[in-house]
């Protein structure tokens, strides 16, 4: 017996699979309370364990929630099937499974599986389970196996490649056109191609194995734009790192020199044809452009490359990584906002299936639906902005409270992977994730640094920057980036061992200028000196420069110098006070010792007479006592 929905699930599109894959990672990184992710048998079905909520289910029992996806997901809602443990509850179970359609009422394409599951949880705990099917719809059958569907999914591109008979034609004639088609991991793939190819495509992401899509990279160098910024080779190699971080398998890349991009396809028609043959030769599933494409260019390229090939740009890739990595509610909201704003002008593609189904006859049908979707998206964007705003206010209150204790705040900024989190961890014993991946950190973390001389300051780790950083992302992360613009001192961490350190510095300076931070003092830290080709040369260069400190966050070298330099910089921002602190305000005296630089303390009849440099904000607190000062 076959499930009524099995045939439609077979046709689940690549886009849907991609989205599911992303959601899956998001789910694993940030599971809502009460849910435990159990098995992902393939991209089309998730099984999630829910612990029984008292009152509605048997408390303490573990239930499974299975989410099955229809052909046109995310346009159509998934079926949510509830699998109870034995013994069955007589009221709500049928054949051992139930299907809930209660969520269909509020379905919108932008909903994620996590949000569906969260609504189910709240539904279960509020005893509103009403829409239970026991007529067979959505019920699982024993022969509805996973392997069948996996085979069905993979069959299509293979058949197409064979039909075109173009395998292996892409590498020829490519030199002239500055093409660098290369098969990655070619050593491993020689010989036992089929088997090792498939095996090599499972990658570990956030502790889980995910299937890596084959990606092909495309870059454009603008004629006359070799002004010391990132060269096309370097930019593409960074794009490759981004693709790897996103869990893709890069199989080749190409680039072209153009005076100005083609308005229809961004690249020239010869290059389009060349990429097309590479797609067939390497079974490419995703083509990634190094620059932001217009919605029209995206559509035209997808049409030319064929329905199954996904085309995306650097911005979409970065958004994808952020989406996978967002570990807190605030980061997830900010990423969702950036993604929705990016999607809004690009919605057209999602509805093209409506037109295809109708043989292209009812064009208006898809268009109307696009308008509806755009409205839904705009509403969601507005709601998200509201929620982010409330978090922002909350964060601000928290910052204000922090300011009440006048410990200076030092913000670490810098290019992604420069070593900011490693430095924070080293100085504060924090355990912020630091790894050799781009965008390891999305949320600011603040920790107290206690220096050897008893002084302290707060150190904030922030999201890393990158060249060609999407403006939508900078705008969406404004709430987080406020941490930077409200700090007392910026520490710009540079990976000095990186061959493109100079260019990375420029890219960071560009974003900092956008954030209007020119009035905040800055200290530059050359990190990873242990990794530099000639560490001694780097160190002596740093000595000659003002405001540059050379360190290795990994080995701890130079950290004392770093703390001293921070203290010196902070001192520049302090004011000189002489104040008589009454004996009953003893806590003020110890705060002065913590945050300021005390020159002299003298105990007199009615208090302690202190002469010190203190932060301006704190000096204001001392004003009444300064008036009584006898100097
Ligand atoms: N050799 C060497 N490696 C370092 C040093 N500092 C950091 N690293 C390595 O560089 C990689 C990136 O470090 P992170 O601390 O995650 O960098 P980050 O600036 O926080 O990166 P994002 O959060 O992605 O912006 C990790 O693999 C670190 O171990 C250093 O001083 N020397
Ligand atoms: Mg980090």
From TrEMBL:
Coiled coil regions, renumbered to chain: 367-401
Q: Where is this region: Disordered?
A: 157-200
Which residue ranges have biased composition labelled Basic and acidic residues? 176-200
Q: Under which EC number(s) is this enzyme classified?
A: 2.3.2.23
Instruction: Tell me which residues make up the UBC core domain.
Output: 15-164
Q: Does the keyword tRNA-binding apply?
A: no
The record, for PANTHER family, names:
GTP-BINDING PROTEIN 6-RELATED, GTP-BINDING PROTEIN HFLX
Name the UniProt record assigns to this protein: E2 ubiquitin-conjugating enzyme
Q: Which organism is it from?
A: Sesamum alatum
């Amino acid at each position: 017996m076959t499930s009524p929905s099995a045939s439609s699930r077979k046709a689940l599109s690549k886009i849907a699979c991609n989205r599911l894959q992303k959601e899956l990672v998001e789910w694993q990184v940030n599971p809502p309370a009460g849910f435990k992710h159990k098995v992902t048998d393939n991209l089309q079905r998730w099984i999630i364990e829910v612990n029984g909520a008292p009152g509605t289910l048997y408390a303490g029992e573990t239930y499974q929630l299975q989410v099955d996806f229809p052909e046109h997901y995310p346009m159509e809602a998934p079926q949510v099937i509830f699998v109870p443990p034995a013994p069955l509850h007589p009221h709500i179970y049928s054949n051992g499974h139930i299907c809930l359609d209660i969520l269909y009422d509020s379905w919108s394409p932008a909903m994620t599986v996590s949000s569906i599951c969260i609504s189910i949880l709240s539904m279960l705990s509020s005893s509103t389970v009403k829409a239970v099917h026991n007529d067979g719809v959505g019920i699982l059958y024993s022969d509805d196996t996973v392997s069948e569907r996996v085979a069905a999914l993979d069959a299509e591109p293979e058949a197409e490649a064979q039909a075109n008979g173009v395998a292996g034609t892409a590498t020829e004639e490519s030199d002239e056109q500055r093409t660098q088609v290369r098969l990655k991991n070619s050593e491993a793939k020689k010989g036992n191609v089929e088997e090792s190819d498939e095996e090599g495509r499972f990658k570990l992401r956030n502790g889980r194995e995910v299937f890596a899509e084959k990606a092909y990279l495309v870059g454009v160098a603008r004629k006359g734009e070799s002004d010391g910024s990132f060269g096309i080779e370097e930019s593409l190699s960074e794009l490759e790192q981004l693709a790897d971080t996103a869990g893709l398998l890069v199989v080749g890349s190409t680039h072209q020199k153009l005076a100005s991009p083609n308005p229809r396809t961004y690249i020239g028609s010869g290059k389009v044809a060349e990429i097309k043959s590479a797609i067939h030769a390497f079974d490419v599933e995703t083509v990634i452009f190094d620059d932001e494409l217009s919605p029209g260019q995206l559509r035209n390229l997808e049409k030319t490359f064929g329905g199954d090939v996904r085309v995306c740009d650097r911005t979409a890739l970065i958004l994808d990584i952020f989406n996978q990595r967002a570990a807190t509610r605030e980061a997830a909201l900010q990423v969702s906002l950036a993604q929705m704003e990016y999607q809004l002008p690009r919605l057209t593609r999602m509805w093209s299936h409506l037109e295809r189904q109708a043989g292209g006859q009812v064009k208006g049908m898809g268009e109307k639906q696009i308008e509806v979707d755009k409205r839904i998206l705009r509403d969601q964007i507005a709601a998200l902005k509201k929620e982010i705003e409330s978090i922002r206010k909350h964060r601000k209150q928290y910052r204000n409270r922090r300011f009440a204790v006048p410990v200076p705040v030092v913000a670490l900024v810098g290019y992604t992977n420069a070593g900011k989190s490693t430095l924070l961890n080293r100085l504060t014993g924090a355990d912020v994730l630091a790894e050799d991946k781009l965008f390891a950190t999305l949320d600011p973390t603040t920790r107290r640094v206690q220096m050897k001389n008893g002084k302290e300051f707060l150190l904030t780790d922030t999201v890393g920057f990158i060249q060609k950083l999407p403006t939508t992302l900078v705008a969406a992360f404004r709430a987080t980036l406020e941490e930077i613009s409200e700090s007392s001192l910026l520490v710009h961490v540079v990976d000095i061992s990186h061959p493109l350190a100079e260019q990375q510095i420029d890219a960071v300076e560009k974003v900092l200028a956008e954030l209007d931070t020119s009035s905040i003092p800055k200290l530059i830290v050359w990190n990873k000196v242990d990794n530099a080709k000639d560490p001694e040369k780097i160190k002596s260069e740093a000595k000659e420069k003002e405001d540059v400190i050379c360190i290795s966050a990994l080995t701890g070298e130079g950290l004392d110098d770093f703390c001293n330099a921070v203290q010196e910089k902070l001192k520049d921002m302090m004011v000189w006070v002489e104040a008589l602190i009454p004996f009953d305000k003893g806590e003020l005296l110890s705060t002065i010792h913590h945050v300021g630089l005390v020159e002299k303390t003298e105990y007199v009849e009615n208090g302690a007479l202190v002469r010190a440099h203190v932060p301006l904000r704190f000096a204001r607190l001392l004003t009444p006592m300064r008036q009584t000062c006898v100097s």
